[in-house]
């Protein structure tokens, strides 16, 4: 068990300043049996302590081809439907052009964006199993590698990142790299769970978006926008929506579904989209 004082000592030893705002004061926010979440006193960015072993593309199943094939067969249509909110936000700010989807996985978003949005699409992911499947089965232009180190011949009109930044231990250099492969005036559309959402606050350690085994950061709208500005972007919009909560038997699942819907409508949802522009 991590004590409050040891967690704060660990935070200060691992991260002298907040990557979003440069703040140096951390406060205990949430404790589970395995981890503690501390938040920056200045911008509310949350940090998972100790840092998750599966961050920065190190997910345990990233090389398991059989897992990804089963995942595609069982969830293909459902996952395509989940891409629609991201595509709607993208279309509002960049209706045409070439996009790069960072952390593309099996390529569900790329497939929908190219077929239904008319975009020219490229993807990149560190999972060899996922990218092999996207290339060989779906015929998508997907590269295998570390986005921070990949060399691109293209310059992109837009970059999408769907639940990526919370996995990245050094998010400012990651976003600075994104800026270098965008055309002047190009945009980034990024989504992440909202640690300040009503469900996140109500459910605490039981909140689905926490994912402490993989998420280095627990973003809030304020810390998300501050991070992008620090990386040299102009923030155009920050909106909240809802993570996926299925309807089920009994009263708990419908209650969570109802709260999630209401929170999203009122601007306190537990998922968020940020749109930023390269100057």
Helix content: 25-40%
Approximate strand percentage:
15-25%
Rg calc: 18 Å
Secondary-structure element sequence?
Answer: HEEEHHEHEHEEHEHEHEHE
Sequence stretches where pLDDT stays below 50 over 5 or more residues: none
Q: Got a strand count?
A: 11
Biggest β-sheet strands, sense, barrel: 7 strands, mixed
What does this structure look like?
- The longest helix has 18 residues, at 65-82.
- Helix 2 (65-82) packs across helix 5.
- The protein has helices at 4-14, 65-82, 84-93, 108-116, 128-136, 171-180, 198-203, 221-230, 252-265, and strands at 26-31, 36-40, 46-49, 98-102, 120-125, 142-144, 156-162, 182-193, 217-218, 234-241, 271-277.
- The mean pLDDT is 91.
- It has 279 residues and is α/β, with parallel strands linked by helices.
- Strand 5 (120-125), helix 5 (128-136) and strand 6 (142-144) form a beta-alpha-beta unit.
- Strands 6-5-4-7-8-11-10 form a seven-stranded mixed beta sheet, sandwiched between helices.
- 35% of the residues lie in helices and 23% in strands.
SSE layout and pairings?
Blueprint: H1 4-14, E1 26-31, E2 36-40, E3 46-49, H2 65-82, H3 84-93, E4 98-102, H4 108-116, E5 120-125, H5 128-136, E6 142-144, E7 156-162, H6 171-180, E8 182-193, H7 198-203, E9 217-218, H8 221-230, E10 234-241, H9 252-265, E11 271-277
Parallel strand pairs: 4-5, 4-7, 5-6, 7-8
Antiparallel strand pairs: 1-2, 2-3, 3-9, 8-11, 10-11
């Amino acid at each position: 068990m991590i004590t409050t004082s040891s967690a704060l000592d660990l935070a200060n030893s691992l991260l002298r300043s907040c990557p979003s705002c440069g703040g140096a004061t951390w406060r205990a926010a949430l404790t589970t049996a395995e981890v503690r979440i501390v938040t920056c006193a200045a911008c509310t960015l949350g940090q998972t302590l100790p840092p998750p072993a599966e961050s920065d593309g190190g997910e345990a199943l990233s090389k398991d081809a059989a897992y990804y094939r089963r995942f595609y067969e069982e969830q293909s249509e459902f996952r395509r439907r989940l891409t629609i909110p991201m595509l709607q936000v993208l279309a509002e700010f960049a209706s045409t052009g070439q996009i790069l989807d960072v952390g593309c996985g099996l390529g569900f978003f790329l497939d929908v964006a190219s077929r239904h949005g008319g975009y020219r699409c490229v993807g990149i992911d560190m999972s060899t199993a996922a990218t092999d499947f996207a290339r060989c089965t779906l015929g998508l232009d997907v590269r295998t590698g570390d986005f921070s180190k990949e060399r691109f011949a293209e310059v992109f009109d837009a970059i999408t990142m769907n639940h990526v930044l919370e996995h990245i231990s050094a998010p400012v250099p990651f976003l600075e790299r994104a800026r270098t492969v965008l055309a002047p005036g190009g945009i980034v559309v990024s989504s992440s769970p909202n640690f300040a959402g009503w469900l996140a606050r109500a459910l605490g350690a039981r909140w689905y978006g926490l994912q402490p085994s993989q998420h280095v950061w627990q973003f809030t709208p304020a810390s998300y926008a501050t991070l992008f500005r620090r990386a040299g972007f102009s923030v155009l919009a920050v909106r909240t929506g809802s993570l996926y909560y299925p309807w089920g038997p009994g009263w708990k699942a419908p209650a969570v579904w109802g709260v999630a819907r209401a929170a999203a409508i009122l601007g306190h949802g537990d998922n968020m989209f940020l749109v930023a522009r390269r100057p």
